[in-house]
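I'd like us to work through together how a protein chain folds, taking it slowly. To get us started, please write out a protein record for me. Label the sequence line and the structure token line clearly, so we can match residues to local backbone shapes. Once you have written the record down, we can walk along the chain together.
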Amino acid sequence: MNELKAMRVFVRCAERGSFSAVAREFETTQPNISKLVAALEAHLGGKLFVRAVQGLRLSPEGQQYYSEIKPVVEALTRAEENFGQLRNQVSGTVRLSASQAFARLQVLPHLPALLARYPQLQVDLQVNDRAVDLIEDNIDIAFRFGPLKDSTLLARRLGVSRRVTVATPAYLQQYGTPLAPAELAGHECIFFDQPNTSRDWTYFLNPTRAASPQAGRPRPIPVRIAGRFQTNSPEALRQAVLSGMGIAQISAWMVSADIQAGRLCLLLQDYAIADTPIHAVSTLNARQSAKIKAVIDFYEAALREELAATQPVLGDAG
């Protein structure tokens, strides 16, 4: 027996004096209401109602029980209503997790607009280049790149991160400009060190830029790279390529301003690199949270515009 439900049914039966009326209120049948009240009576060890010609009448014990539990039932109902209202409000604190580069360039610039839209919202941004455990680290939303492995998380695809090959004008003037992926073998390449990554950079012939587009699925062109510097930090990768240490593959959104300003040059534009998906992930129990849904909706729209805005800049560069 669901004791709380039985108590609620009993209170309504006492107030309405009819099992049938309460059955309609709870969208069930009169026998089901009668069975629930009988189960509560068996649990209490006494009769709550006296059946009379004019309808249900509380027994003396039932009257005492009603007077004692009605405030309890009303308090529980108010607590549930208040809880539901809070979940439906975009208010309180939401904890975000993002890598250093993504936090600096994509999360933080949009925060003023997010907080202006939702005045009762507070944001706690945790910056970490490792993949955090949402439950252990008490994170509401984490921004993640690449294929997702944890099927216990809710995931919303926010867009894709286009990767580009870049170097400084000074580096290219000194060492030459590679015109095909195979020519990277003779250059200093800066390796972005991640778990389970090889030192192969893979390209595909880009039919939108190539002089002789190939029909069908592009053939992958793997290139084994070499260089004297590697890093697991996207920010360090950007700084290294800007300092002229070599050629790098990097997310376009990280260097679009550098390309536009002429600090970096786009290379190998006749070739494409596989895009990296960007997701916002949250735990399953966050499904009904209005604040989490609102933040994910906001960043999905913001990033769609942001990532689309880089395409003309990149396409026109070089």
In short: The CA atoms of residues 182 and 223 lie 6 Å apart. The chain is about 40% helix and 25% strand. The mean pLDDT is 85. The longest helix spans residues 60-87.
